[in-house]
Amino acid sequence: MALAVAASARAEDPPESSAHHLPPAPPQHMMEDMPYAEMAAVMQMDDTRRFGMMLVDRFEWRDSNAGAAGVWDVRAWYGDDYNRLQLKSEGQRAGGTTRDAWTELLWDRVVARWWSAQLGVRQDFGEGPARTWLALGVEGLAPYWLDAEATLYVGDQGRTAARLRAEYDLLLTQRLIVQPHAELNLYGQADPRRQIGAGLSDLDLSLRLRYELRRELAPYVGVVWSRLFSGTADQVRAAGGSSSDVQLVAGLRIWF
Amino acid sequence: MDRSRFRPASPLAQRGMSRRCFVQGLSAGVLVAPGVRALGWAAADAPPAPGDRGVLTGTDLNLEIGALAVNFTGRQRSATAVNGQVPGPLLRWREGDTITLRVVNRLPTPTSIHWHGVIVPADMDGVPGLSFHGIAPGEAFVYRFQVNQSGTYWYHSHSRFQEQTGLYGPIVIEPRAGERQHADREHVVLLSDWTDVDPERIYRTLKLQSGYFNFGRRTISDFVGDVRRQGWPPTVAERHMWGRMRMDPTDLADVSGYTYTYLMNGVPPAGNWTGLFRPGETLRLRFINGSSMSYFDVRIPGLKLLVVAADGQNVEPVSVDELRIGAGEVYDVIVAPNDDRAYTIFAQSLDRSGYARGTLAPQSGMHALVPPMDRRPLLTMTDMGMTQGSGHDMSGMAAMDHGSMQSAARLDDPGVGLRDNGRRVLTYADLHTSGGPIDPRPPGRDLQLHLTGHMERFMWSFDDRKYSAAEPLKFNYGERLRIVLVNDSMMNHPIHLHGMWGEVEGSDGRFLLRKHTINVQPGQRLSYLVTADALGHWAYHCHLLYHMEAGMFREVHVERSSAKGT
Question: Which in A5, A75, B294, B320 has the greatest CB count within 10 A?
Fold first, then answer.
């Protein structure tokens, strides 16, 4: 068939296709239907693929009244476009011990174009007895590019808590970025063994200036204003600390 | 923003491989396996000879796909090459011939070749999963099909990201009766984007930080400058509009010159690919955009471009100064360089983060001035599908499907960055395919698809459903239908349907232009007619490689309506 076609084409008649469009012959082999997973493997194309990321948002040294302290703020996630396992951890170390730290493990699920709901557990450690909480929250991108996060916690013995976080990137240049950041913690009842009072507990407002050597590696300097409130402030003052503090910070922001 | 860092060095002043400026590449050309020609396909001033390593003619062709050591930027890398060269050899076919291509896979991974724009039976189309199972490592696949068209086309891998690592090449199908538009000499100009970074890493990077490659975002000094220029109220209102929608008007290209070196026929800008001519000759330049993620704005300072074919199909000739070519698109252009001097072929990327560059000259070794790149453009309300004072609700990403759609076709819009630049720029409205539509019937139905995406998570889709979450589109064999694409996103997308032509309708509803790869601008609504005369399973997707991977893909099943029980 192919030879006959080729022979007639070599004769000097113009090919039929120069006069009008010729549709293609039907395929000799029709591809079978496959379940998506198999299709993705054959095509080597998969939009459900999972990725993971580790962001060390803050790895910093703080100059404080009680001496130097090291602070970390780490986010990690693993999953696909709609469902992810998320790890969050923040904490402070000074004088060789972990002062105040928490870690959360959450299931993050997209619920709206810009928001995901999160459900999981939080563990507080450092000074005082460890606390475990159930965590329920939302995280996403608010209008005007504000990264926002709000989480409610329920612990044992009727403990409740809430945390609000927001941050924003302001570009001075393509690589020099100013990031204001705010974090507020509230507690339903006092927890004296962890030096926490009921109600508004602590507020951190900070401004960091980072320079992106690469997107993944950015040293920064900044200033943090910390304020403790009511019950928390009283307890910290009773222990010899102060209820408000301004600290200079320097650190690295890394992701991979 | 300091735009000067995106200005290219003059060819005579070699700049170092600064990370701040896109890499201009090596002047010495590509380091490839010994004995293989690196620069272009044709011999200097003669039409290509059949024995020429870079050109394959005849009806029985052998292609071997394998890894190739290359060096475009000063760093040695491994490319995916056909017959030991990037781009692959020029395939010259004759209309009416039956071509047999034996493709051998010497890679450790499966591969495939898709003949872009060539109408072939579905099992010869080269898409793993839809046409065949791909070509396993060490195996060979024999493609055989009759060529029933003429013009300029191209081929590329449809496996994973091999298109990004060099598996692409040109196809020229000679019409039996000779070219309708004669030229004394021709050159293929295949534009592509090369990165030294593993494309798997590029894709992962886009998923983790989608704006990673965008070094043109607006800064505080842009804000201050805007306030100085136009005052507080318009500046704040404009920032408010974009901010509420969480959209970025600088979002022009997902992958930029930050990692790409742009190649012309496989040669980086500093390598100065040169196409020769004799003064007074007419030249046919077959422009192919074989890139993975890039749009090029092409012009030749000093020469008018007479566009004579689009996607391999003859059009009524139209003379322009500049044209935008999206990934997958093809334009044949005739130029008449009369002076005994060099001319620069300048192809700047849409986001002005770099350019591909070559020279037309009477002898090799010549070069002409390379113009500076244009200012980096910003998306505007036009690109959001809105006209001034339209009163549209700007609070969400809902489809811009309000009221009058006449203006939203915008076929006469040259696109972001090319409006009112003092040059005549080609638009789809200028292109009229010769000979009328291939099928005179009106469409029996409409199929509307929205081009959608979520930039932050780097998800791309049709109708907000990724490929994995979507059913195949079913076309009845023989039907004629209208496809309406509404671009709800802020990026240009070159949409490519395998196996069938798309016949774009003009704003008057009449046949305008036949294409296989149709670019839809941000905010644009574009309709085209398709005759489903090709049985089988076909790919239908955005031709930006990482968009396709991220979900902007559909299967089209063309079936006899009585065959399926559904």
Answer: B294
